[in-house]
Amino acid sequence: MSRQIEGYHAHHSPLGAFASFTLGLNGSSGGFGHALSGPAKQNVYVGYRIGQRGNWRMLPFFEEPESNEASFTGEAAVDVMPQKLKILRSSEIERSLAWASDTWRAGKGKFGFSLLSPFGEVPDPTGANRKKNRIHFSPHINGWIEYDNRLGKSPVELMFGVGDSEQLFRPLEDTSPNLCGFAINGSSGYATNPSVRVEVRQGFNIFDPKYRDYRGLHVIAGQSALVFTVPAGTKARFPLVLGFYEDGTITDGINSQYLYTQVFKGLEDVLEHGLSQKGHYNRLAEKRDRELEGSKLSEDQKFLIAQSTHSYLGNTQLLWANGNPLWVVNEGEYRMINTFDLTVDHLFFELKFFPWAVRNVLDLFVRRYSYRDQIHDGNGTTSAGGLSFTHDMGVMNHFTPKGRSSYECDNIGGCFSHMTMEQLLNWIIVAVCYAEKTGDRKWLRANEKVLLACAKSMQNRDNPKASKRNGVLKLDSMRCGRDGFEITTYDSLDVSLGQARNNLYLAVKTLSAWVLLEKAFSDLHLDRQAVSAGKTADLLAATISSQFDEKTKTFPAVFENNNRSRIIPAIEGFVYPLYLDMDWVTNRKGRFSVLLDQLSMHLGEILKPGVCLDEKTGSWKMSSSSTNTWFSKIALSQHVIRRLFPETLSESALAGDHVHARWQKSPGCGEFAMCDQIRSDTGVTCGSRYYPRGVTSILWLNE
């Protein structure tokens, strides 16, 4: 069966389960997946037929089913695709991806199918009782399937099913009288209430079952489905619940289990809970959907926020280790654990809905993933660096040893080198933002020595001698070796953003860290340290300003080797004082007015086609010298620009949102749900697939 592939996948995931029912790319399979680097490969059967002799009209979420009948009969399977099955064309389908739901309609709106991924404010699981933790951390999603047959003359049948030739489903009625549905072992499954009008099917061909046992099933076969009936003259919506469950030890390095195993006995318990509490979860999803829909954002912006959030939720993992919760966000297709340069970008979402998760990650970075290093000047002189933090905590459910990441390698420069300065800045920024937004002064006081050590480490990386400092990173960690160099989170871009030393992007981010430290030290009544941090921020601002080219009205991306690249993330560092309402930092006529005015001129010159707007597509480019552009960072920069530099937004720049949304809705990106790294000249992903980081777009709701 050959069909045009179009559209996009989306994650449909509960919070903290690192699991997804991925669906949505036309002409492609999807389904249940645990800790995968991309969509699962199960066929998903969703559709309807009018009358028992009518054609099945199916959403295009399966490839031609592979029947395992032949392995039993010794003959080729026939009629795998029945003659009375018709795939709905894209022109016949309406899809609406909202903040917490994904809904398809067909049959002139009479047929509907929806998957819900509700989320909201979540309390610290440490202080919550068992009932609340069951509500907040149940590893399931809800859904429904419906048909409006009020004007119909014949009954209508609705189907929801999943097929997998490698992992066979088992009927849930064998283990629970309260469930109608199927499961793969105890790890994933779907169900509805036995009380509704439903037929349970399993066989080599669920559209036309040939073999049936005493219940009408054939348990050794690979296809399974629920078939609901809507009588003529009625309208009916039937509930669905899709659940996940993994018991036992999930990670090594730090041995842990999923937290939900502390409050749920198994998959059947999860599915029964999801059905019994469907009203709560439906209302929560509706609340989130209304919140986004009611914003003043464009339809493209709303879509980008929704798609980003779905992918973020699919990468979250809440574990239970040594009697305490352990929060993880996995890095999309790479599956690295708590990548710190993602943590700093997930910050805005997490502080809105579950700030305890931010504190949890910060504490683990201090306790296990911090280190002290030596630095060098490139001429053979070494000196003490100071405290910093690793790029990540491990990969694919393996926590790496103390003070080491899965990504960073010693004695190299470029991709896979160390991000020592970047991660030092990230701990400072995340820590101060957490303390300021939550008012957790007790935690801030407990980490006073860490903050002081961070400040000293930043000073050393500028220059060990105070008289030679200008605020900019100039010395690399010895972990990179004498011939290597540190990199930034923009590791896969060219030197304009990839090199940490003398980098404009990192210099402005360092300025932000210093003003945040100034605020934190003041709150802690460390007056001398607060004054010192403020003076360093002023010195750094003057240093950055001195690099402004009056002829071109732009900044070079790197303050060495006559660099000619121009970058949008020159303004990225200002997102944090903006977020914390530090008007004395962001006021265009205030303390940093000279630098802010220069950045405005810089943006005005680069937000043009051929510089940082791609001439072919109209998309935003992070760097004038690279076609590798990142949506998550575009979203963050757009927020800063709209808040601080709106005068720089031309019609061409404003049109970028439509381009970026179209990319995510097309197979070049959409095959992998939310994608972050995209070729600006083609709109095709070049990395960071199945990715959580686009959730930086939540900042747009603050505008």
Q: What attributes does this structure have?
A:
703 residues; alpha+beta; Beta-galactosidase, Chain A, domain 5; Glycosyltransferase; six-stranded mixed β-sheet; elongated
Task: Describe this entry's structure for a reader.
- The protein folds into 2 domains: 6-290, Distorted Sandwich (Beta-galactosidase, Chain A, domain 5), CATH 2.70.98; 295-702, Glycosyltransferase (Alpha/alpha barrel), CATH 1.50.10.
- A hairpin with a 2-residue loop joins strand 23 and strand 24 (398-399).
- Helix 6 runs parallel beside helix 8 and helix 7 (355-367) crosses helix 8 (420-438).
- With 703 residues, it is an alpha+beta fold.
- The protein is built from 20 helices and 28 strands.
- The longest helix is centred in the C-terminal third of the chain and has 20 residues, at 504-523.
- The model has no long low-confidence stretch (mean pLDDT 95).
- The strands form 7 sheets. The chain has an 8-stranded antiparallel beta sheet with strand order 7-8-9-10-17-14-13-12. Strands 6-5-4-11-16-15 form a 6-stranded mixed beta sheet, with no helix packed on it. A 3-stranded antiparallel beta sheet has the order 1-2-3.
